[in-house]
Amino acid sequence: MPDDTLNPVVGIDLGTTYSSIARWDGERIDVYRMHDGQESIPSIVHIQDSGTPLVGEMARPRLMTDPSNTVEKAKRFIGDETKVYTLRGKPYTPVDISSLVLQRLKQDVEKRYPKTAGFDIAGAVITHPHYFKFPQIARTQEAAVKAGLPVLRLASEPVAAALDYGFTNYSRMEKTGSEKILVFDLGGGTFDVTVIEVINEATKLTFKVLATGGDDMLGGTNFDEALAQWALNAQGIKFDGLKPEAKSRAVANLMEQVIKTKRELSSVDSSYLTVPNILPGQHMELEITRAQFNKILEPSCERIRRILSDTLTTARLRSGELNKSLMIGGSSLIPVMEDIVREETGVDPWADADRHLAVCRGAAFLAAMDDGRVTKKEIVIEEVTAHALGVRAAGNVFSVMIPANRAAPVQATRIYTVKSSSFEVQPFQGHGRLVTEPTVTALKPISITGVRLGPNGDADVKITFSVNNQQILFVKIEAPGVSEQRQLEV
Ligand SMILES: Nc1ncnc2c1ncn2[C@@H]1O[C@H](COP(=O)(O)OP(=O)(O)OP(=O)(O)O)[C@@H](O)[C@H]1O
Ligand SMILES: [Mg+2]
């Protein structure tokens, strides 16, 4: 299918703090500017009195003026079925909020690009952190469908960033060869580290994921909170006495200044944190140096360093084998992050990556590829599993069937001897020794009924789990009287 401006294929980076959308124009990737000229919108939703949502920059001041009807960072809770926001008395799930953000991107683009009547997005790729588990990915997809987007597929953020790099650097080049690159993606809410080999052949461009690691609860938000806590302690300020609404307002007021100061410290050695009227009649006025800020970040940096070093070990890179480090995500601008990457990899971070837009650009490229609009080269993506998949064994032990960092597609089979015609299997995903650990997530149980028992009153049930290269889980059940194959609901 040729490229078509009326029916574009788009890529969307649904970020914790910012989201953006890009399209493939037939030759290159073009990031859409929103109505206010920006290339992204804040992932913030406010529900007005009338019930009409305000999304993006317009919703931001409402964090301060009407915090109880305004939501930010819903991505941190996507996949958590217990999380519900009550806005204007109505329940909104993280899926609902994310879907409003996606809808806003879609509508903004549709409103301003009706070259003629009938502009309609033909296909969309939406990204998620590589470190997301199946339910988080499934809910992200749900949000996209709910927003009315024709989803081509979901893709992982680091792979999208690598695709942008590969496309920009290789698609036109005759030169063949391979490169091993590190994608260090530190955003507002999540940290992903991925080692990818880009193999450029005459007619084929392959992206082979060698290893991944990360934390879906580690990002700029944590740094903001740590800096805010430090400042409150330094001035002995407590919000405890405030009513909930007043407290939310005071916190929002403080966070706005904290984020400003944090960003300044990425380019200057020393800055001020000033919050007028943080409490009635009381101002916050603090000087902070970059060295002090680095000290505040130390626990997070420790964790980042460990995840990075583990991932490099998993990738089995020999010294000097890594060609490039791509720094992606707004928080990668913090100078100490570059120091960490330099120290752990021995490679200077590559300065030319588009930290803010690489993910959405790569997603648009992938959308074009999926829709058959990129014809220059065959593009192959070889993924690995982000988490281990297994079942519960005696003593709550997490019995792993498919380990993390296994090349996908991958499958594993287990046989159970059952003594009843119905049977339930509970899969788990994550890492840990026991299924009860917080890092291990229980997926929806699989119920099997109608098993035909043999003369001894038992039967063998064979269950095969497979994970495809888009991190989608399938299950195949084989037993006397039963034979089915389905995408596992997660
Ligand atoms: N100059 C800077 N120095 C430090 N931090 C920054 C700077 N610029 C942006 N940030 C931080 O980067 C984060 C936003 O980055 P980005 O837009 O990549 O995240 P996101 O895509 O919304 O989140 P995620 O990928 O985790 O879902 C915010 O926490 C923001 O405060
Ligand atoms: Mg991001």
Structural account:
With 490 residues, the protein is α+β, with helices and mostly antiparallel strands. It has three domains: 9-172 and 353-383, ATPase, nucleotide binding domain (Nucleotidyltransferase, domain 5), CATH 3.30.420; 220-294, ATPase, substrate binding domain, subdomain 4 (Actin, Chain A, domain 4, Alpha-Beta Complex), CATH 3.90.640.10; 388-487, Substrate Binding Domain Of DNAk, Chain A, domain 1 (Sandwich), CATH 2.60.34. The protein is built from nine helices and 30 strands. The strands form eight sheets. The chain has a seven-stranded mixed sheet with strand order 18-17-12-13-14-19-22. Strands 1, 2, 3, 4, 10 and 11 form a six-stranded mixed sheet that branches. A hairpin with a 3-residue loop joins strand 1 (9-14) and strand 2. Helix 5 packs across helix 6. The chain is globular and about 85 Å long. The model has no long low-confidence stretch (mean pLDDT 93). It binds adenosine-5'-triphosphate (ATP) and magnesium ion. Magnesium ion (MG) binds at residues 13, 15, 157, 187, 329, 359.
